[in-house]
């Protein structure tokens, strides 16, 4: 049995007793029943995930996986491929959006090179390269099946390491020029969605390049013929190294009762991939925001998920999830710190 499948099969069911205890406690807080809306729902869900009626989710761990994509050769991105490595160095020096937001929320941020073509050198980069970039999925499989499985293993290992450092919730993010193209292909492979409807502009390609990008996704799917019933086959044929690693991180976190907060389109596709590998994973997933990428709405619908925020973001890196994290922190602090009617000596609502 492979490492990822053994871990996936060990994912525990939600703790319904902890969730019910949280629900009963919330009903006793000094407020009208249900008046804190989705905050109450989120707190109850986090109790079920963690097995703690009074859950704690700080500090969050943030894993940003980086990998390059061979399909960039087809002109599907507004930025050149070397930007992946340059942004990895920007993460390492603390200058990117995710660094700012990670500092704001007290997050443990780790950058993982799972497939950058070059070798960005910085002390804080975790070097777990499976291969230097994927193959061009229009011309060949993105990776071998063994490499796809190794990506999942890298994600599991990374999740276990950051959890060992004290992370109580996991945010997954990514960096990889061309990865909206691969994410669109994965989504179309799993759902049968028309690339015309789900492919977005990614980094902001011009109109002609946008039409070409849709055509590339459609032709790659026709050429590679990924098997929708076999998630590893989909990842190997049209996926991304960082997408596979994010899926592995989701599986690894869920196996340890650690909630996962997905970011936008790409990380949500990785979450979908993880769910297709092991459906039990779905219970541990929360979604930070609604991306501007058109395919994100389809992913969220596929997972029956409601995002926390909609701020018209489309950056990636885990940035939207990091911005949404304080909402989750507010939910759990409500449970832990708010007075009950009895403790505050306040009369409850009459029946």
Q: What percentage of residues falls in helices of 4 or more residues?
A: 40-55%
CATH topology name of the largest domain, in short, is Rossmann fold
**Spatial separation of the terminal alpha carbons:** 57 Å
Measured by DSSP, the beta-strand proportion falls in 5-15%
SS class: alpha/beta
Main sheet: strand order: 3-2-1-4-5-6
CATH class of the largest domain: Alpha Beta
SSE succession: HHHEHHEEHEHHHHHEHEEHEHH
Tally the beta strands: 8
Radius of gyration: 20 Å
CATH superfamily of the largest domain: Nicotinate-nucleotide-dimethylbenzimidazole phosphoribosyltransferase (CobT), large domain
Number of contiguous helices? 15
CATH architecture of the largest domain: 3-Layer(aba) Sandwich
Number of structurally distinct domains: 2
User: What is the arithmetic mean of pLDDT?
Assistant: 96
Q: Largest beta sheet, briefly?
A: 6 strands, parallel
> Which regions are unreliable across 5 or more consecutive residues at pLDDT < 50?
none
Q: What is the 3D form? A: elongated
Protein described:
The protein is of the alpha/beta class and 351 residues long. It contains 15 helices and eight strands. It has a six-stranded parallel beta sheet with strand order 3-2-1-4-5-6, with helices on both faces. A two-stranded parallel ribbon has the order 7-8. Helix 3 packs across helix 14 (319-337), helix 5 (97-105) runs parallel beside helix 14 and helix 12 runs parallel beside helix 13. The longest helix has 20 residues, at 145-164. The model has no long low-confidence stretch (mean pLDDT 96).
Note the main attributes of this structure.
single chain; 351 residues; alpha/beta; 5,6-Dimethylbenzimidazole Phosphoribosyltransferase, Chain: A, domain 1; Rossmann fold; 2 domains; 50% helix
């Amino acid at each position: 049995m492979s490492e990822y499948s053994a871990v996936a099969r060990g994912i525990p069911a939600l703790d319904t007793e902890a969730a019910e205890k949280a629900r009963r406690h919330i009903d006793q807080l000094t407020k009208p029943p249900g008046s804190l809306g989705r905050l109450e729902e989120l707190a109850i869900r986090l109790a079920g995930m963690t097995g703690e009626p009074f859950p704690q989710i700080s500090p969050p761990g943030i894993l940003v996986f980086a990998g390059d994509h061979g399909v960039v050769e087809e002109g599907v991105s507004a930025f050149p491929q070397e930007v992946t490595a340059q942004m990895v160095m920007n993460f390492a020096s603390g200058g990117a959006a995710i660094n700012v937001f990670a500092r704001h929320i007290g997050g443990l941020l780790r950058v993982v090179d799972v497939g950058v073509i070059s070798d960005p050198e910085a002390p804080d980069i975790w070097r777990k390269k499976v291969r230097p970039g994927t193959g061009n999925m229009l011309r060949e499989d993105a990776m071998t099946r063994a490499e796809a499985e190794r990506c999942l293993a890298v994600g599991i290992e990374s999740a276990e390491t950051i959890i060992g450092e004290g992370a109580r919730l996991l945010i997954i993010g990514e960096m990889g020029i061309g990865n909206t193209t691969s994410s669109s292909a994965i989504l179309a492979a799993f759902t049968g969605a028309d690339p015309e409807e789900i492919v977005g502009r990614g980094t902001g390609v011009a109109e002609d390049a946008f039409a070409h990008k849709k055509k590339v996704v459609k032709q790659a799917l026709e050429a590679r013929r990924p098997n929708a019933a076999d998630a590893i086959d989909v990842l190997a044929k049209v996926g991304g190294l960082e997408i596979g690693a994010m899926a592995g991180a989701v599986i690894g976190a869920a196996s340890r009762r650690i909630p996962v907060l997905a970011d936008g389109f790409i990380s949500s596709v990785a979450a979908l991939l993880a769910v297709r590998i092991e459906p039990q994973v779905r219970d541990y997933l929360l979604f930070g925001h609604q991306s501007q990428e058109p395919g994100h709405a389809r992913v969220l619908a596929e997972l029956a998920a409601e995002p926390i925020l909609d701020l018209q973001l489309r950056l990636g890196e885990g940035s939207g999830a990091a911005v949404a994290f304080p909402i989750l922190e507010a939910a759990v602090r409500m449970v832990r710190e708010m007075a009950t009617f009895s403790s505050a000596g306040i009369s409850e609502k009459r029946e």
